[in-house]
Amino acid sequence: MGRDVTRLDSAVHDLTEDPGIDARAVQCDVTDPESVAVAFASAAEALGAAHILVNNAGQARSLPFDDTSLEVWQLMMDVNLTGPFLCTQQVLPSMLHTGSGRIINVASTAALRGYATLAAYCASKHGLLGMTRSLAAEVAQKGITVNAVCPGYTEGGMSDQAVQSIMALRHVGADEALAMLVRNNPRRRLTTQNEVSATVAWLCSPGASAITGQAIAVAGGEVM
Questions:
Q1: Mutual orientation of helices 119-139 and 83-98 as an angle, nearest 10°?
Q2: How many structural domains does the chain have?
Q3: Annotated catalytic residue: which of 103, 121, 152, 203?
Q4: pLDDT at 49 over 80
Q5: Do 117 and 13 reside in the same domain of the chain?
Q6: Contact, 152 vs 217, CB < 8 A?
Q7: What predicted TM-score, i.e. pTM, was given to this entire model?
Q8: SS3 string of 40-65?
């Protein structure tokens, strides 16, 4: 699911090259309750009730607190917190009915600590972690686990935006901006998407059935 149909179709093409995988693309804007309801109904009609939900949509804006508008604040809340709330509401009834399920919220190390110039983003991710822990406690006896995966800066669009922002603010080149971005990471490099997805996959496995209500940092020791 996502907003960009072209990227969705490309992902489906890649996934279905394996004959054992059936995948469908469903356009969805997680900030729109009607869009979420229609998307999940379409997915359930095609593939059946959900056993796993990964809330992975996200937005980030880096601004000094005084320059953070209400519009930016609301966007962070809508995408990073209300979106997972709406999507979780769509799958939880069937999970409760079957007595099993896995819900993984992709949060951030920003759910575990504060970062300068990221007040709105940090607030939304702290809220997502609070929702994760609360729901985990609520459904612990129902065969459902709810966890948060908390990546540090990860290869991809958000880290690219962060590098561009540092370049503009500090008047430095891309390599220096990237070095500044990862200077608090003991490995001095970005987390890879595969490192994050492997953690998500493990949380979906039978071996992780006792793991719930946790915030698992995938950040190379950036937070401990």
A1: 10
A2: 2
A3: 121
A4: yes
A5: no
A6: yes
A7: 0.92
A8: HHHHHHHHCCCCEEEECCCCCCCCCH
